[in-house]
Design brief:
By secondary structure, the protein is α/β, with parallel strands linked by helices. It is built from ten helices and seven strands. Strands 1-3-2-4-5-6-7 form a seven-stranded mixed sheet, sandwiched between helices. Helix 1 links the parallel strand 2 and strand 3. The chain starts with 5 loop residues before the first strand and ends with a helix. The model has no long low-confidence stretch (mean pLDDT 88).
């Protein structure tokens, strides 16, 4: 198994199969799949995707097939059946590709989509603002005003790769400005910028694989807007979006889906 592409959250017990989770990873103060794995009944192992790095060519490398093919080529516990694929937010875009790759003699794994999200320019911009909020205390009023006004200066909000490239450069500028007087080593600044670039690439790749996901169990938080294809019969919970993966009820619903 390529440990750079999957992170083990819980090892399987006995002859149990595995559950594959698709997400970039939680933000600060957001529950992640590690909490769901801890709450999940049964003995299945749980493994979380680690998106491949985007490198310098965000426009060229942010292709959905690049993500799915690499994850599928390095499936963890390849001798065990994949019982379910569980996605969070934009991760739903990669669900069908992974399900096809994991379909075996006993059929396809169950698919559970948690707060499925379609990616557009507004989401990229809101994630940029969330990322820069970390540095708010270190930004002067002029820089903060420039950060919040970035949406107005984006060249083409419908061309997501160009939007992502611009946001990557803006975030690099924010990081350099915020850490200039803090003595942060250059390699740490580079690591912060690279992680955000990887996230932008993940979102752009997700946006390039839109559309209906068939035969999925849909779990939604209290006020999360759902794509039209899944708005009819979701399990809508009162839990806020950032707390959803930590809700024991979500773990029970996932367990029920993979036992169905």
């Amino acid at each position: 198994m390529d440990r750079q592409l999957w992170r083990c959250l819980r090892r399987p017990e006995g002859s149990a199969g595995t559950v594959l989770a698709v997400d970039f990873g939680p933000r600060a103060n957001q529950q992640g799949f590690a909490r769901l794995a801890a709450n999940l009944p049964g003995g299945e192992g749980v493994y979380l995707t680690v998106p491949p790095g985007i490198g310098a060519d965000l426009r060229g490398e942010a292709e959905p097939e690049r993500y799915v093919d690499r994850w599928a080529a390095a499936l963890p516990e390849p001798d065990r059946p994949v019982r379910a694929i569980v996605t969070f937010c934009a991760g739903v875009a990669f669900a069908d590709g992974l399900r096809r790759a994991c379909t075996g003699p006993d059929g396809a794994p169950a698919l559970v989509t948690i707060d499925p999200t379609e990616v557009g320019g507004e989401l990229l911009h809101s994630e940029f603002l969330a990322a820069t909020e970390t540095f708010r205390a270190h930004l002067d009023e002029q820089m903060f005003a420039e950060v919040t006004a970035v949406r107005e200066t984006l060249a083409d909000p419908d061309d997501l790769p160009s939007v992502a490239e611009r946001l990557r450069e803006e975030q690099r500028r924010v990081v350099e400005h915020a850490t200039a007087g803090a003595g942060m080593p250059e390699h740490l600044r580079a690591m912060l910028c690279a992680r955000f670039a990887d996230y932008l690439g993940y979102l752009v790749a997700a946006a390039r694989r839109p559309g209906r996901v068939e035969h999925a169990t849909v779990i939604a938080s209290a006020d999360h807007p759902l794509p039209g294809w899944c708005a009819d019969h979701p399990s809508r919970l009162v839990t806020p979006h950032d707390d959803l993966l930590g809700d024991p009820q979500v773990a029970r619903l996932v367990h029920g889906a993979l036992r169905a």
